[in-house]
Amino acid sequence: NSFGASNADFPPGDPGMYQLDVTLRRGQNLAARDRGGTSDPYVKFKLGGKEVFRSKTVHKNLNPVWEEKAYILIDNLREPLYIKVFDYDFGLQDDFIGSAFLDLTSLELNRQTDVTLSLKDPHYPDHDLGSIFLSVVLAPGDPREAVILSILVNNNYDFLPSMPYRTGNFCHRIYCPSKCVLMTVFFVSLNKHLSIFQTQSLRLSDLHRKSQLWRGIVSVTLIEGRELKAMDANGLSDPYVKFRLGHQKYKSKIVPKTLNPQWREQFDFHLYEERGGIIDITVWDKDVGKKDDFIGRCQIDLSTLSKEQTHKLEMPLEEGEGYLVLLVTLTASAAVTISDLSINSLEDQKEREEILKRYSPMMMFHNISDVGFLQVKVIRAEALMAADVTGKDSFSKSDPFCVVELNNDRLLTHTVYRNLNPEWNKIFTFNIKDIHSVLEVTVYDEDRDRSADFLGKVAIPLLSIQNGEQKAYVLKNKHLTGPTKGVIYLEIDVIFNAVKASLRTLMPKEQKYIEEEDRLSKQLLLRNFMRMKHCVMALITAVCYISSCFDWDSPPRSLAAFLLFLFVVWNFELYMIPLALLLLLAWNYFLIVSGKDNRQHDTVVEDMLEDEEEEDDRDDKDSEKKGFMNRLYAIQEVCVTVQNILDEIASFGERIKNTFNWTVPFLSWLAIVALSVFTIILYFVPLRYIVLVWGINKFTKKIRNPYAIDNNELLDFLSRVPSDVQVMQYHELKQDPTHSPSKRKRNNPA
Description:
Blueprint: E1 18-28, E2 41-47, E3 50-54, E4 65-74, E5 81-87, E6 95-102, E7 113-118, E8 131-140, H1 143-154, E9 169-176, E10 181-188, H2 194-207, E11 211-212, E12 216-226, E13 239-245, E14 248-251, E15 262-271, E16 278-285, E17 293-301, E18 310-316, E19 323-332, E20 337-340, H3 349-358, E21 372-382, E22 388-390, E23 395-397, E24 400-406, E25 409-412, E26 423-432, E27 438-445, E28 453-461, E29 469-476, E30 483-496, H4 498-505, H5 522-551, H6 555-571, H7 576-594, H8 604-626, H9 634-660, H10 665-684, H11 687-704, H12 713-720, H13 724-730
């Protein structure tokens, strides 16, 4: 559905630039897509296949009022502006309400036009889906604005932060389809020479090359649910909760067979808007083999909550029964920034001293959650995979950009078009909440009409980083099981407080909200079975070794074991248990330092990972043929559960082994300190006093802090130790010696 008739006076493919100012006014009589006879509508504008604007969501309203503005730069008036309206559904795919398009050639220049667009669905052309009301102004592009846009695009300043400016300046959010760039640009109203205007514009952009990405952190603690609706035949439910704030999503654990579940889980969200936002919360009942049942929903309006304060909320569930108990805290923004190489925090002596002071030993008990500081320089990549093939001569290229992730902090570089040897020269800084986190750097190829193509990835544990050293990392495949084409050059610096890092190790690990769903894989199931078999065989070997001592298969060994048994039993004290573990750690450390550790590298896991990667490639090709319904069978869900249980058991055994093998020296040293303390305490303090203190702490914990999150310090410690699979994934591959910087070849931009 278009507005007006085409104007033939516009020349086809007009090379001039135009600015389209669109005000999204309201909707009227929109189609109902929810069970309650309402919708939660929002609007998308698309130009040339790219989304250039997305409105806020108006909840439970068929006549929404938006009053939002968008500024779009147009370089081809023959390209219509598509308007699509959706119904927002949390946890599910959003429902399509209707679409229309605006014929830009029908608009008069420099004149505001009020437009009414009737929404249509191509599959149901006769249905009345409501209307959208817009006000649009089409104007020729200002040459000065074009100069600024050119400067910004050529220098890759593809995002500048919004902030107030004095009278005479104005801010535009611009999308340039020919450059595929979405940006916020500041223009200065000057009526002097163009050279002065350019100098002023560059100075403003220089001041803001270092920008802060989000404004705060929202910490949500899910305590419990009360009097929830019974969804199963036994009069109970298996409830779990989903949270969503913008694109950020979390899912709680499932509490089986209860109407009053206790979760006690914490989730952290990034807050991007100064005025806050709305957290959507839905409660579901888990059903094996069929679609989960909806129990109820509620929302938290963050704009109504004060910052730097913990709020206890009891949220009644809409469209259901019962309510949830939550703790919500809004805190100031973490120091997560992006800047050019010219803005380097660690090279600025004053900033470096402030950072070192913040994480000095004197600050060990100040803000325990702020463990350290991470700076990542993404310099360039070389010899990347060609994802696009164009032209008669099959010219191969890629449009690479880089994604840098640390837990739930996810930042992107700009895209370098038509280049297999891109240079980004960007600096990213992060707050470290857990020193055992893994930095993930992924390179993608941008595609205009579909999702980005994967080019390569590296995963770097923070504790393995060598500060200030520029290194070439060989890119790996999607599952980090083997090399792919290309290398990426990074320079990373980590500064952290060792005491805070040690204390944080004994706390629950942060959950990632961007995680792949569990899938059934024959190779993965076999791999987990073999890993568990290795752990069981190690126990059996130990039992057989002890039995051989009883059978006197080797008389000298049996005699030594017998004398050791008599000595230990006769002189046994409780402190000898941690002392024995301490001696085992010390012995393994001595073997490693002296070079006498001749244990063979276990290639079984590596071989299985390679086989799994081959199967993943086959699965990706076959998935389209099999369809989505095959995933819903109950037997598959049971197999996935068995697969995950095997993985957890095998990982538990491997983590214990890797602790004593000094796979992560920081954790092994921490274990030595803890075991030494336990040994001293058990030696000097009677056991009854230790048990008494432990029991009093357990019985009074809920009284002292009723909303404390339950955790086991030993399991939290082991969760930081990598399993054998993770050790293989984090292993740094050696660079091909034939690949050197002096032999680089550049692709000329097309």
